[in-house]
Amino acid sequence: MKIERSAGRAWADEAIRKITAENNRSADTHLYSVPLPEHWGVQLYLKDESTHRTGSLKHRLARSLFLFGLVNGWIREDTTIVEASSGSTAVSEAYFAQLLGLPFIAVMARTTSREKIDLIERFGGSCLLVDHASEVYATAEEVAATSGGHYMDQFTYAERATDWRGNNNIAESIFGQLGLEEHPIPDWIVVGAGTGGTSATIGRYLRYHSHPTRLLVVDPENSAFYPGWHGTASGTASGPATGLPSRIEGIGRPRMEPSFVPAVIDHMLQVPDAASVAAMRHLRTLAGLHAGPSTGTNLWGVWQLVAGMVAEGRKGSIVSLMCDGGERYAGNYYSAGWLASQGLDPAPYESVIKRFFHTGSWDGDAV
What we know:
Layout: H1 7-24, E1 31-34, E2 42-48, H2 58-71, E3 81-84, H3 88-100, E4 104-109, H4 114-122, E5 126-130, H5 136-147, E6 150-151, H6 154-161, H7 170-177, E7 188-192, H8 197-208, E8 214-220, H9 225-234, E9 267-271, H10 273-287, H11 293-312, E10 316-322, H12 336-341, H13 347-359
Parallel strand pairs: 2-10, 3-4, 3-6, 4-5, 7-8, 7-10, 8-9
Antiparallel strand pairs: 1-2
């Protein structure tokens, strides 16, 4: 009996080929060595995810989510792709939707930067803006249902769409690039959490390969992730943690997302929003890297770990991520007027960083 492939299966096979071919054309992202005082004995590396075609760490996630949707039969020819996003994931998904010739709708908070909205539209997507970040989930579901489309739901599927064992995920890439360094097994990897998918992938990879590296997740003020993790780690959780919409685009959430896996995280730190801005700006002076605010959140945690290693006289390395480029935030986080309107004053935190680089010790808790 001869059974031929359906037209739908043939289209999905071709879609997977296109996405895989796009990945084959893409070089790995850079792992920069960031200059620190030599006598500290600590090396810092930043993996520059802004060099992806769509300009952020979320390019990896979008690729994985599209492949996940295709192999599960959720994405078909002419399927409208719908996503709830704070911006960067939607930019990347718009790119892959355009690659496959599919319509794309991003549901985002009205506060999303104009630069990100422009990028989504440049890749052929459209944006539906809601007044509050908490509205994006239900609105995206409704849009997908009424359009007969597919709600990608990054906040649920991020942790399961990526192969945490390897397959060129971000953790495997980091360890491959560190292979010839003085300290090829880092003491710490530092990331933030938006969906929780990156921290889940890295945390699982570290355990699967028995690396002694520990995972620090940094979280903006008022986000639900830190209290949720703390409650789980201490056994004091009495219910799902809640918070407020984050002022640091891309990370922090008002609720504990399904893709956030607290048990694979070794430690978490809450970071003041103004400190994220200060560290973001300092990076440009220190290393000539123009990054977004979530990179600053990472660095505020990094500097505390470096100070601890210096105090202990311990040599080693730390890795973190440059999640996206600063050009996406010219109208907000790099604007003095916008910062003032948000009540964000990075100056006291810039003084902390300056003292840290002068003395090697940390006094950030005094701000």
